[in-house]
Amino acid sequence: MTETDKQAHWYVLRVQSNKEDAVRESLEKRIKTAGLEDQIVSVLVPTEKVSEIKSGKKRVTQRKIYPGYVMVEMVLNDDTWYLVRDTPGIGDFVGGAPNTKPVPMPQYEVDKILGEAEKETEQPKLRIEFGEGEAVKITEGPFENFSGVVQEVIPAKGLVKVEVTIFGRPTPVELEYWQVESI
Q1: Cα–Cα–Cα angle for 35, 78, 39, nearest 5°?
Q2: How many domains does the chain have?
Q3: Is the pTM of this model over 0.70?
Q4: Angle CA(163)–CA(168)–CA(174) in degrees, nearest 5?
Q5: What integer is the mean pLDDT of 14-25?
Q6: Residue 88 DSSP class
Q7: Tens-digit pLDDT profile for residues 53-93
Q8: Type and span of the H or E element at 66
Q9: Are 39 and 79 found together in one domain?
């Protein structure tokens, strides 16, 4: 075994959709049981925080960045490869031909994904449920109960530009995204 074979690399695993967390927990238990914590360093399900308004209430939820995939940092050898492949819920490694040793992720991709996962401690992303041209009803503010059409969505500021008819004239109005709901 060369020195580079003993170094841990990141690999991507294809898993059952909506089972990412259960597969991660199962894999972590199997790693402890087998005593391979020094060779399988980390198991990660990349997530981000998303802010959304449902039924007039603001909620912050976790959303998986890559549904159906789990990342694992490990030293690739026969023991670790078979332990990971034989874990229930794991389809196979991404990269490489079937039944051959997988190809590790390039470092720039790892840095990008880990950077996205670290952002979850920052302010959550807004989840604005409507798009341009969609009919909406204003639920709060001076234009409450008016209907209009979305002209522009500005997610960076959490604003929605809605065209409302006031005194027979179309007038663009900027509103907070939570002041508007789809019709």
Answers
A1: 40
A2: 2
A3: no
A4: 20
A5: 91
A6: T
A7: 665 566 777 888 888 999 999 999 989 988 998 999 998 88
A8: none
A9: yes
